[in-house]
Amino acid sequence: MKNEDYFALDEAIIDAIKSGRREFYEIAYRDAVDAEAKRLADGDGSRTEPWRIVDRRLQAMRKAGRIAYSRQSKKNPAGGWNVAGASA
């Protein structure tokens, strides 16, 4: 699949993060993200689990600098996935 095929999933992931979902399970198994991941999994013919597609996209967007992951701490109470450059 080409990167253009993931546009809708990437946008759904960004929207989920912006709405306050920070942990993987909160992002992967809800609403538009889950539906789009299932659509992509059904369409690729490789029997890939939808959550694996979400995980791949999270890592690809992290490497591209669109999102970032941080551990929760006293200094950073908004740990988890965040949109890069956005304040928590």
Description:
This protein has helices spanning 7-18, 24-28, 31-44, 50-63, and strands spanning 67-70, 80-83. The protein starts with 6 loop residues before the first helix and ends in a 5-residue tail after the last strand. It is mainly α and 88 residues long. It is 51% helix and 9% strand. It is elongated, with a radius of gyration of 13 Å. It has one domain. It has a two-stranded antiparallel sheet.
Largest sheet: 2 strands, antiparallel
How helical, in percent, are the residues? 40-55%
Shape: elongated
Strand content: 5-15%
What strand line-up does the widest sheet have? 1-2
> Uncertain runs with pLDDT below 50, 5 residues or more?
none
Task: Based on the model shown, name its key terms.
88 residues, mainly alpha, two-stranded antiparallel sheet, 51% helix, 9% strand, elongated
Briefly say what this structure is.
By secondary structure, this protein is mainly α.
List the helices and strands and how they pair.
Blueprint: H1 7-18, H2 24-28, H3 31-44, H4 50-63, E1 67-70, E2 80-83
Antiparallel strand pairs: 1-2
Helix pairs in contact: 1-3, 3-4
